[in-house]
Design brief:
Number of domains: 1
Strand content: 15-25%
Number of helices: 2
Radius of gyration: 16 Å
Helix content: 10-25%
Largest sheet: 3 strands, antiparallel
Shape: globular
Distance between the termini: 33 Å
Length: 80
């Protein structure tokens, strides 16, 4: 399972989205000032939603936030 976090500028986790390995696709649209990042090696099991593990995870963890990096490239002509 993938775990995606909405993270404030102070590193506090604002929300979590779980995407199961069954091919479920999720889309996150954060509000201004919130970053979205994947949390790897989280240790949560598939029953995290039912067991209350997500709430506990949010209370006990934060995320070290760094500025996103991107590389701009020129688009091919006719690519829209």
């Amino acid at each position: 399972m993938k775990l995606m976090a909405h993270v404030g500028e102070d590193g506090r986790i604002q929300g979590l989205v779980v995407m199961q390995d069954t091919g479920t696709v999720g889309m996150l649209v954060p509000q201004a000032g919130i970053q979205v990042c994947e949390i790897e090696d989280h240790g949560l099991k598939d029953d995290a939603l039912e067991s209350g593990a997500l709430e506990k995870f949010m209370r006990e963890h934060s995320v070290e936030v760094s500025a996103a990096r991107g590389k701009v490239t020129k688009r091919a002509q006719g690519a829209d």
